[in-house]
Design a protein that fits this description.
By secondary structure, this protein is mainly beta. The chain has one helix and 17 strands.
Length: 189
């Protein structure tokens, strides 16, 4: 599946699990796509703001990310580096628990579910594993998230994250950006 070029900006309203808003700005250069954004929400009585700058290569593999989180009166910064072959560093330290992950997935962001559908090739309707380096919204802890995607139609993908006992159908636009992430967010621009 090929998608149209990314727009310069997109935004989402968080709905369901949390209430808030996310705005992402997209640009491209010789290295690939760059995404910079901010997402702010309140979830389970806790409010947070997460700023991110993510660099992808031309194959949509995450190469780096700088994430700044604010919650509970403190600010945390996490810097992530990836070699595109599944090896990661978090704040300059090797992260073997992320071995084999190719995507960065921010708990705070609907936008980061854009990366796998641009990168993966889908053999029919069978699920494709897409483990990700998963950054929590509060505290910015980085964990491994086992997840799968399967293409159900031209712009719809079935998504599952078994650790959260969560599955849904994600709807994307012609740019490969999420339009509807049930229980999480909807695209407003």
């Amino acid at each position: 599946m090929s998608f149209a070029a990314l727009p310069s900006v997109a935004s989402w309203r968080h709905e369901g699990a949390r209430e808030g808003f996310e705005v992402a700005f997209f640009s491209a250069d010789s290295r690939g796509a760059r995404v910079e954004g901010t997402t702010a929400a309140t979830e389970d009585g806790t409010s947070w703001i997460v700023d991110y700058a993510i660099q992808l290569d031309a194959s949509w593999l995450t190469r780096s990310g700088r994430i700044t989180g604010r919650s509970g009166g403190s600010t945390t910064v996490t810097v992530i580096e990836a070699d595109g072959a599944g090896n990661w560093q978090v704040d300059g330290i090797e992260a073997p628990h992320l071995q084999g992950c190719l995507d960065l997935d921010l708990e705070a962001s609907a936008m980061t579910n854009t990366f796998p559908v641009h990168r993966l090739r889908f053999p029919g309707e069978r699920p494709v594993a897409a483990p990700a380096a998963y950054v929590r919204a509060v505290g910015l802890d980085v964990e491994r998230l086992e997840q799968t995607y399967s293409r159900s139609s031209e712009r719809e993908y079935d998504y599952a994250a078994p650790v959260f006992d969560f599955a849904c159908r994600l709807v994307y636009d012609r740019h490969g950006l999420i339009v509807d992430y049930p229980g999480i967010a909807t695209r407003v621009r």
